[in-house]
Amino acid sequence: MVSRVDLSGAAHLTLAAGVVHLDPAAAVYQAMLDGWARQQRVRFLKVATVERRLALVRRLVDFSNLYPWQWSTSEVEAFFDAMRCRERPIAVSTARAYQVELRMFLEFVTDARYGWVQECAQRFGEVPQQVLDESNTVVHVGDYEGRPGRRPLSYDEVQALFDAADARVETIRIRGRKGSLAALRDAAMLKTVYAFGLRRREAWGLDLTDLRHNPKARQFGEFGALFVRWGKASRGSPPKRRTVLLVPQMDWIVEILTQWLQEGRPLFHPGKHPALWVTERRGRISTRALNEAFIQARDDAGLDPELDLHCLRHSYITHLVEFDYPERFVQEQAGHDYASTTAIYTGVSDEYRNRLLQRALRQRHADLWEDEQ
Fold first, then answer.
1. Would you kindly state where each structural domain of the chain is located, as residue ranges?
2. Is 199 one of the annotated active-site residues of the chain?
3. How far apart are the first and last CA of the chain?
4. I need a labelling partner for 344 at 20 to 30 A (CA). Which of 23, 145, 258, 286 fits?
């Protein structure tokens, strides 16, 4: 028999002792969710992550009209089958994420140390069970399971995107409408995201102090590097930090950022606000604004609607590879822990692969190559 342990989220710490509830099942269910939320918070998981997981449990309860201690395999499988049969079926990666999170919840409530099994058995004569296993969950067989449309942009597509963003500034000016300054900011933002391979939140969190000199590349002035403070966190850890160096192939961003800091940003009258990207209300832009800026430029350029802001990061990583930077350098620039992650982001062009092939042929058959030339 497992003795009662004062673990965060345990039943005896969440349910009020000696209280008679008018609806015991609803009270235990809510206490169960409160306990799981507390158990996750002490692990320093993000509030958004905790809320998303609780919402998923509530969705399954609403779908099945059953409480967690009443769930069986059939209800959970019907839940996922319904999401597959919708007009817009659930993506494989999303289904796996849901299954992992529900499995984590059931691991919590079936762990005898937390007391929920004993509580449910005593009150309802039923106990929660682990109903998700290898037989009814998505098998992870591929490195990448995102949307096929999410891919690196070609050089021409990147140029078309930036041309459309620049053209929007001039179009608004000619029409005498408000918004030309915001359009100028958006164009500079998109170019910065690509030039440094930033994630959305990384670009959102940039401050003026994050612009750094690189002593080994003085010609870039104050834009030789970016100090990224809002890198992707993992397992409750704080946001990761890294310094992204400006590579010579992206040195055109120096002129863009110089113009933004000297001519564009001051017109927003930001005062002492530290953000690099500010709004008309003298605040930091939202992450949603970054998405909207990309979508506007993408649609104006007539590009594939499947492309999203993150594709610029894919493009940056791919183009660094095509510029022949070493794999480790590219990995460090991107802020990836593993080279395999960088490889997933990479989608080199046929032209690049043909150049590699020709280089290998020259090295292996130098005499034949010289005769052909």
1. 11-136, 155-360
2. yes
3. 83
4. 286
Distance CA 329, CA 323 (A): 12
- Contact between 2 and 117 (Cβ < 8 Å): no
Q: What percent of the chain has pLDDT over 70?
A: 89
Fold exhibited by the domain 155-360: hpI Integrase; Chain A (1.10.443)
Q: Tell me the C-alpha distance between 40 and 285, whole Å.
A: 30
Instruction: Please check the confidence at residue 356 and state whether its pLDDT lies above 70.
Output: no
Higher pLDDT, 188 or 94: 188
155 classed as catalytic: no
Let me know if 310 is a catalytic residue: yes
Identity (one letter) of the amino acid at 81?
D
C-alpha to C-alpha distance for 323 and 328, rounded to whole angstroms: 14
Q: Which is the catalytic residue, given 310, 325, 352, 355?
A: 310
Q: Per-residue pLDDT tens for 266-275?
A: 999 999 999 9
Query: Of the listed 151, 298, 313, 319, which one is catalytic?
Result: 313
Tokens of 100: 């992992």
What is the domain class of 11-136 according to CATH? mainly alpha
pTM to 2 decimals? 0.72
Region of 201 please: left (phi>0), alpha (psi -120 to 50) or beta. Answer: alpha
- The residue annotated as part of the active site, out of 168, 185, 199, 284, is 199
pLDDT for residue 35 is more than 90: yes
Average pLDDT over residues 221-248: 91
Q: Is 143 a residue whose pLDDT tops 60?
A: no
Burial 335-351 (b: 16+ CB within 10 A, else e): bbeeeeebbbbbbeeee
DSSP 256: H
